């Protein structure tokens, strides 16, 4: 991606502080990240209840 790990971490923290990103603990220090549905659907509030989000997340833990 051409950016350092600290840059990614800094932007993740920034987006989380703006409530645009939700951190989901998976195991130990491993986290998954998702866009905050309230922010994503802010302009489409009437359709939010009918939105379906299906995802599969695979996580490889460092040893």
Question: Which features would summarize this protein structure in a list?
Answer:
63 residues; alpha+beta; 27% helix; single chain; globular
What do you see in this structure?
- The chain is of the alpha+beta class and 63 residues long.
- It has one domain.
- It is built from 2 helices and 2 strands.
- Strands 1-2 form a two-stranded antiparallel ribbon.
- A hairpin with a 2-residue loop joins strand 1 and strand 2.
- The longest helix has 13 residues.
- The radius of gyration is 14 Å and the shape is globular.
How do you describe this structure in short?
The protein is an alpha+beta fold and 63 residues long.
Q: Give the strand content.
A: 15-25%
Q: Briefly note the structural class of the backbone.
A: alpha+beta
- Largest sheet report: 2 strands, antiparallel
- Oligomeric state of the chains present here: single chain
Tally of DSSP β-strands: 2
Alpha-carbon distance between the two ends:
23 Å
What gyration radius follows from the Cα positions, in whole Å? 14 Å
Helix and strand run: HEEH
The geometry reads as globular
Share of helix among residues?
25-40%
Number of domains: 1
Poorly predicted sequence stretches spanning 5 or more consecutive residues: none
Strand order of the largest sheet: 1-2
- Mean pLDDT across the residues is 76
Helical element count?
A: 2
Keywords: Plasmid
Protein name: Helix-turn-helix domain-containing protein
